[in-house]
Here is the input.
Amino acid sequence: MSGNQAQLTGRAEALREAFDRSFAQPPALEAVRTENLLAIRVVGNPYALRVAEIAGLFADKAVVPVPSAVPELLGVSGLRGAIVPVYDLAALLGYPARAEARWMVLARSREALALAFGMFEGQLVVSLQDAISTAGERPRERGAVRAAGGLRPIVHLPTVLDDIHKRVEATRSNRKEA
Here is the structure.
């Protein structure tokens, strides 16, 4: 056998082994990036919250009203051993204030703060390919996702929390000036 024939035979054997091995191994799956969301309803409208932006989900917690110059503040509640201010997510999103707020999320932030809303529908695990960018349209929303029967705007909790802090600071400034 000449050198070229031996080389071709060796190459053919290597290709055959590689071909056979490809069927012995499970097919490589393309990594799909996903995001965990909570599907909620605010005044009957579908929304989503990023699980990474919350520290807890609670139902039927008592909220004790407290006087406040910030109309979105519903009161305070005891969550995880702390007294936490609870704000109306509907009012913060521009809807009329609602007393119906069975559910609340504890925001993941440096200060304990909860947001109350009407209905929790479940957890969603969505592909980032299903996300739609809506930057600049509504400041408290960062994108939307096609899930759970329709399009759900994703509430951007850091922006909502910044709005709350600005409102609280504005009321403190107004009190100092008065």
About this structure: The chain has a mean pLDDT of 83. The chain is about 25% helix and 40% strand. The chain has one domain: 34-177. Residues 34-177 form a domain with the OB fold (Dihydrolipoamide Acetyltransferase, E2P) fold (CATH 2.40.50.180).
